[in-house]
């Protein structure tokens, strides 16, 4: 059975098309990063959860979220200010008991429970699993200057979202080299289109709607009478 370490990054994933420090935006009164952490709690195959913030944000984040995170067994760690530096910081602390790593953008709080199940189920067959959503409109390819080059069919493209799942050695290699995996090595799993990224406070209302539209998971009975009140 695969055992997972979950790594949530608060840096902007510029290589994946993100912008804005959305992990710290409140959606219906609660920060995206807390909502994102919550999606991975109470899973028997998740053995470790790390939330990475920039070094200059560590003390404030510890003061604001430390009690909640510690109560849930989530480790708050300091990393760099960019995506790959934060990933590398987490890679140094992956638990020995974990065979795979789930990487997630903490600014994406609207991931269906079943979608997380789906990527977890693929890890025995694939070393890198990437979640995607469909592109629903036509595209125009442009030069760096913005000059249009050609029309492209949306059927040949998908939008990359998170979470991703890696065999642990693949994740550690990525953390060491600080390079994204080769696209041809990835197995693609389609996510719900509700999986949006919050970039700014103006996205909060839409994110709330998306979260409320997610299908509710079947809840197992809690072993901890205080678990329901942790957030």
Q: What are the salient characteristics of this protein?
A:
single chain; 231 residues; alpha/beta; Spore Coat Polysaccharide Biosynthesis Protein SpsA, Chain A; 7-stranded mixed beta sheet; two-stranded antiparallel ribbon; 6 helices; 11 strands; disordered C terminus
Helical residue percent band: 25-40%
In terms of quaternary structure, the protein is: single chain
How many domains? The number is 1
CATH superfamily: Spore Coat Polysaccharide Biosynthesis Protein SpsA, Chain A
Q: Under CATH, the topology is which?
A: Spore Coat Polysaccharide Biosynthesis Protein SpsA, Chain A
Uncertain segments? 226-231
Please identify the top-level CATH class. Alpha Beta
Describe the strand arrangement of the main beta sheet, using strand numbers. Answer: 5-4-1-6-10-7-11
Task: Determine the mean pLDDT.
Answer: 91
Quickly give the CATH architecture. Answer: Alpha-Beta Complex
Count of strand segments: 11
What would you call the shape? globular
Order of helix and strand elements from N to C terminus:
EEEHEHEHEHEEEEHEH
The percentage of residues in β strands lies in: 25-35%
The description of the largest β-sheet is:
7 strands, mixed
The gyration radius over C-alpha positions equals 18 Å
Q: Count the DSSP helices.
A: 6
Structural class: alpha/beta
Alpha-carbon distance between the two ends: 29 Å
Polypeptide structure, described:
The two termini are 29 Å apart. The strands form 3 sheets. A 7-stranded mixed beta sheet has the order 5-4-1-6-10-7-11. The protein has a two-stranded antiparallel sheet with strand order 2-3. It has 6 helices and 11 strands. With 231 residues, it is an alpha/beta fold. 25% of the residues lie in helices and 26% in strands. The protein has helices at residues 32-38, 58-71, 83-91, 113-120, 168-177, 204-213, and strands at residues 4-9, 26-27, 30-31, 46-54, 74-79, 100-105, 128-134, 139-142, 148-152, 158-167, 187-190. It has a single domain, classed as Spore Coat Polysaccharide Biosynthesis Protein SpsA, Chain A.
């Amino acid at each position: 059975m695969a055992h997972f370490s979950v790594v949530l990054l608060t840096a902007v994933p510029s290589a994946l098309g993100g912008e804005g420090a959305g992990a710290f935006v409140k959606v219906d009164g609660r920060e995206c990063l807390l909502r994102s952490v919550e999606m991975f709690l109470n899973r028997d195959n998740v053995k470790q959860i790390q939330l990475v913030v920039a070094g200059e944000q560590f003390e404030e984040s510890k003061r604001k979220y430390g009690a909640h995170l510690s109560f849930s067994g989530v480790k708050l760690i300091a990393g760099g200010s960019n995506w790959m530096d934060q990933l590398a910081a987490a890679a140094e602390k992956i638990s020995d008991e974990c065979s795979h790593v789930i990487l997630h953008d903490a600014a994406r709080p609207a991931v269906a429970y079943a979608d997380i199940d789906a990527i977890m189920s693929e890890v025995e067959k694939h070393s890198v699993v990437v979640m995607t959503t469909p592109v629903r409109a036509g595209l125009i390819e442009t030069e760096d200057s913005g000059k249009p080059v050609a029309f492209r069919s949306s059927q040949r493209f998908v939008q990359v979202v998170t979470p991703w799942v890696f065999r642990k050695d693949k994740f550690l290699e990525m953390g060491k080299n600080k390079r994204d995996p080769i696209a041809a090595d990835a197995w693609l799993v389609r996510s719900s289109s509700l999986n949006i990224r919050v970039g700014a406070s103006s996205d909060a209302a839409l994110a709330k709607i998306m979260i409320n539209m997610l299908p509710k998971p079947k809840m197992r009975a809690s072993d901890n009478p205080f678990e329901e009140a942790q957030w």
